[in-house]
Amino acid sequence: MSLTPRSFKLNTGASIPVIGFGAWAGRDPAIQAKATSWIFAAIQAGYRHLDTAWIYGTEKPVGDAIKASGVPREKLFVTTKLPWNHTKRVQWSIDQSLKNANLDYFDLYLMHWPHCVVHDEKEPRPRDPDGQLLLDDTGNFNETWAEMEKVLASGKVKAIGVSNFSIKTLEQLLTTASILPAANQVEMHPYLAQNDLLAFCRERGILVTAYAPTGYTVVREDTTIAEIAVKYGATPTQIILSWHVGRGTVVIPKSENIERQKENLGILVLQPEDTQRIDDLDRNQRVCNKPDEVGKVWGWTMDRLGW
Ligand SMILES: NC(=O)c1ccc[n+]([C@@H]2O[C@H](COP(=O)([O-])OP(=O)(O)OC[C@H]3O[C@@H](n4cnc5c(N)ncnc54)[C@H](OP(=O)(O)O)[C@@H]3O)[C@@H](O)[C@H]2O)c1
């Protein structure tokens, strides 16, 4: 298998490995309890880019796995994310994240969502009586970004970026930002290609990272993907991940399984006609953060999100 580029450049000049390892451990305590071991296995398998978040509860397992691996810190790229319930206490939150991971710095610090949520240290997803996320609309992401710029200046993180931002919210962010986000991490896969957002980010030098990059079974079981996989003697997931990297996006697949971790590192270069067939599968379909029965994603309408 011929390899595509192993890393892309951020607008800071730093290199970011194109395949990262997603460290979301789900909500099953049994899987969370084993997180250090499957993250350690991923580093052993060759991953050098780890994607965690305060809200995943895996900053500590990531830090523990790094220590156990013996891989020098400077050989790794580690991303974490500011949770929505800490948007008014950013300086405090980054110190918590560094302490959780027992690291001196993160390579990339993302604002996890554009939302500002009421701070409740025991419950990062507090709800109103209707079951909607308890938003704190006295805060806004422009102010939060200004605080993240101070984190960058402190040296505790090497780059700052955003996640779940659209063209609409990015444009709003850029009206006050002194520093351009280095990255925007969004849901992206062949059924949600987000061509306009990708072009917008590319034109401005904002690297896009695809989360839920495999598209789950919905996309992994697509018949066109299956046909292309047969042609290359590869698996459907390898074809999907190769498509992403071919269009210049970083991917962060997650797997607890060592064989699938290794499989997901096996990307290849697709021929233009196969890339086109996958491009044609786009249908603006979300598989991860989907709107609920009242059309909101975590309390924000699709219009407010710009999705
Ligand atoms: N910024 C955000 O708001 C946000 C939101 C969601 C996710 N993320 C990040 O993105 C990462 C990846 O997203 P994700 O976990 O939602 O989606 P994903 O990586 O596309 O899919 C993970 C699921 O696919 C399975 N899987 C992985 N590789 C496979 C393969 N080769 N064959 C068959 N099944 C495979 C995994 O099961 P096994 O573990 O059993 O292999 C798991 O159930 C997360 O870990 C997190 O770091 C960020």
Automatic annotation (TrEMBL):
Substrate binds at residue 112. GO terms for molecular function: oxidoreductase activity, acting on the CH-OH group of donors, NAD or NADP as acceptor. The active site is at 56 (proton donor). Keywords: NADP, Oxidoreductase. InterPro entries: AKR, Aldo/ket_reductase_CS, NAD(P)_OxRdtase_dom_sf, NADP_OxRdtase_dom. Belongs to the aldo/keto reductase family. The record marks 81 as: Lowers pKa of active site Tyr. This is NADP-dependent oxidoreductase domain-containing protein. It comes from the Eukaryota. The keyword NADP applies. Residues 19-282 form the NADP-dependent oxidoreductase domain. Coiled coil: none annotated. SUPFAM superfamilies: NAD(P)-linked oxidoreductase. CDD domains: AKR_AKR1-5-like. The keyword Lipid metabolism does not apply.
